[in-house]
Design brief:
It contains three helices and no strands. Helix 1 runs antiparallel to helix 3. It has 66 residues and is mostly helical. The protein has one domain.
Length: 66
């Protein structure tokens, strides 16, 4: 498992999709407990899918460079 022991650096601009990913999953979880977010369930799920894919892509490309 040497893959998980590697370290990399992230710029502030590269952290934006990761933060959006985390925030969207929190809102998605909150949608199960609050009626306000339930109307935006599909939008938040799409946002989470896009940002998690984007974050993983950036992470894998950074790991391949090292």
């Amino acid at each position: 498992m040497n893959f998980f022991k590697r370290k990399t650096t992230w710029s502030n601009a590269e952290l934006i999709p990761l933060k959006l990913c985390i925030a969207s999953i929190y809102v998605l979880v909150g949608a199960h407990f609050h009626k306000f977010f339930h109307a935006y369930h599909a939008v938040v799920l799409i946002l989470f899918g896009i940002t998690v894919t984007w974050s993983l892509y950036m992470w894998f490309t950074k790991m391949k460079k090292e």
